[in-house]
Amino acid sequence: MPTSRQLLRAVAALRESFQPGNSVFDQVLQKAEAENSWFTRENILTAIEAISRQYLQEEALESWLAAYPDLPVKRQRRVGLIMAGNIPLVGFHDFLCGLFSGHKIYLKLSSKDTVLFEYVLNQMYAAVPELQDDVQAVERLVAPEAIIATGSNTTSAYFQRYFGHLPHIFRGHRNSVAVLSGQETEQELVELGRDIFTYFGLGCRNVAKLLVPESYPVANLADYWKKFQYVIFHNKYRNNYDYYRAMFLINKMEHIATSLILMREDVSPASPVAVLHYETYRDAAAQKEALDRDASAIQCIVGRGYLAFGQSQYPSLFDYADGVDTMSFLSGL
Q: Which range marks the domain in which residue 27 is found?
């Protein structure tokens, strides 16, 4: 089992390898985009920048690990990590938790995100060859003793059926919500666009719904999001836009059509790609009621008094998906 110092060395090597201009890394970016057209070069670099800034700094890692004195474990278990593939390297935090837990980790990669994870593993193996004995990507999980699995609400039922008898963390899909008061600055509203449009809205930390005061001029928000106009030129995003626009028109469903996104009044915290839901609230009590009602479907909340605008895609090491402490789970196996 590699020591914590060796693992930190592997992390440092990975951080150094994430540099545009590195010819090998540039080839990886091209291959990843060819594998999954939602993974544009810009989105991959955004994900890597967030990972490097939030997860791969030695001081932050040491502070995080200090909160778990029982790790690394004395008795290794075979832990399977089933990865999602909706945004680049979306399972990296689970991977990092597994890496520093001391267990034997087996990664079942999403077919939509193999290139980037294989690059990550190869860079870390080169720095610490012993790591290959404890962390591997596999085609099939064989006799796992615990499971951490992320997918859609549909695949959660599959996870429960096949792995529910094991210690587990199962995650379905969540979305994020932004709370607006009407007092936001122009810059805050621009940054809100980052929370909505980064990764084309495919991540669980993407804002898919707004809570706004009654009579809020929702349609005017698009005026602040012109810098994100690039999304409408992406073929798959545009197809979604055109499909839902047509569906709303055919079914005579009220909506607002802007040049880059459709807006519709709907209480659901989950909205399709290229559609943004909004719900009005009367007062603070009604706002809280709406958030409490949907708490189990919300990943994070953006707004004054919550997560700052523009920061939803930069979780810290302590920001665990669905609020479930993955490191505590691993330490207790």
A: 4-173
